[in-house]
Design goal:
344 residues, mainly beta, 2 domains, 11-stranded mixed β-sheet, 3 helices, globular
Length: 344
């Protein structure tokens, strides 16, 4: 009897194991079959078509109305998203539409690449070249303000120097870098940089030629015969260290970099900046604040600059009046470096 009971237990155990193995085996087979059919054929996008709508273009104005704005649209078969490349800068646009505002004066050619993105990351692309007219007349009140008197750093004002994240390639600032229009990371308090060469520098704008769209900047380095800026771009652009001593880690600056007075040309061009004050992922005018900003940019020839030297000759104007200008420039490090100048 005991032997019979033992046999029954062994038999039940073997049957249980068989059922478990059978069920497990069925589950594996079932998964393998579904897995085998879960991936379809990966087809790269095809028939990529890109079109350009130059704002103001007509029979009398083949290169547009002078605003420099062009809207590009791309379509393709088997595409799930798109991106555009302008002068090496890529912008993802799932809708397949983007607007660029070109700023080089006169008629210039621009080549835009549209990339269609398909399943599995496959891509296909198409280029288009457009000839665009930019005919900009700088605001008379800005020219009048610039060319009146002499300008200097607004040393008694908080934020007269500062730094924040840089702008994106399309002059936008989003959740990742939305401090770009203001010195969000750090800003100088009144007279914070008294132990540097910057406060005795003077900037005089003159000789504006409206037809040529150019004027002259005279930079006077002041009695100390020096300027203030970042070590790396100064050494690269202005002639080595010139005997100056760097502050070293962490800022690597030349507080007194020997330099001479100089004159350069300057031009003023339009630019459109975009930022997302309320970080809602949109760029539009809302009660939370203006998120699309049409403004001006001052461009100096050569190694011309104002304020703190960071290796760029293009300066965005964020605020301006007859006696005060708040600006930023993108430095050698990709950050936006800020300043405020006022008129003596």
């Amino acid at each position: 009897m005991k032997e019979m009971n033992r046999f029954n237990k062994i038999f039940k155990t073997l049957m249980s194991l068989t059922v478990v193995i059978f069920i497990t085996g069925c589950e594996i087979d079932s998964f393998a079959e579904s897995d085998e059919h879960s991936f379809g054929e990966i087809i790269a996008p095809s028939n990529v078509q890109i079109t350009a709508n130059i704002v103001g273009q007509d029979a009398d104005n083949p290169n547009g109305d002078g605003s420099g704005e062009v809207e590009f649209t791309v379509t393709a078969e088997n595409a799930i998203s798109y991106k555009f490349v302008n002068n090496g800068a890529e912008t993802l646009k799932p809708s397949g539409t983007i607007k660029y505002a070109f700023t080089s004066l006169g008629v210039n050619s621009y080549t835009i690449t549209a990339i269609a993105i398909g399943a599995g990351g496959t891509t296909s692309s198409q280029n288009i070249t457009v000839d665009v007219l930019v005919s900009y007349v700088a605001p008379a009140e800005l020219i009048a303000a610039l060319t009146t008197g002499t300008w200097k750093m607004s040393k008694d004002e908080g934020g007269h120097l500062g730094v924040a994240a840089g702008l994106n390639a399309d002059n936008s600032a989003n959740a990742a870098n939305w401090g770009a229009p203001i010195p969000w990371w750090w800003s100088a308090g009144p007279l914070d940089k008294s132990e540097t060469a910057i406060y005795d520098d003077r900037y005089t704008f003159s000789d504006w030629d409206a037809d040529a769209g150019k004027g002259k900047l005279t930079f006077n380095v002041g009695p100390d015969g020096a300027i203030f800026g970042k070590e790396e771009p100064m050494k690269a652009d202005l002639g080595g260290d010139r005997g100056a001593t760097s502050t070293g880690d962490p800022n690597y600056e030349y507080e007194y970099y020997p330099y001479e007075n100089f004159e350069v040309e300057f031009t003023i061009v339009p630019f459109t900046a975009r930022w997302d004050w309320n970080q809602d992922g949109k760029y539009e005018d809302t009660p939370a604040g203006q998120e699309i900003y049409p403004g001006e940019k001052i461009i100096f020839s050569g190694t011309g600059f104002i304020g703190f030297y960071v290796g760029n000759q293009e300066f965005f104007i964020w605020e301006r009046s007859d006696t005060r200008i708040r600006y930023s420039t993108i430095g050698f490090d990709g950050n936006s470096w800020h300043g405020i100048i006022n008129n003596e």
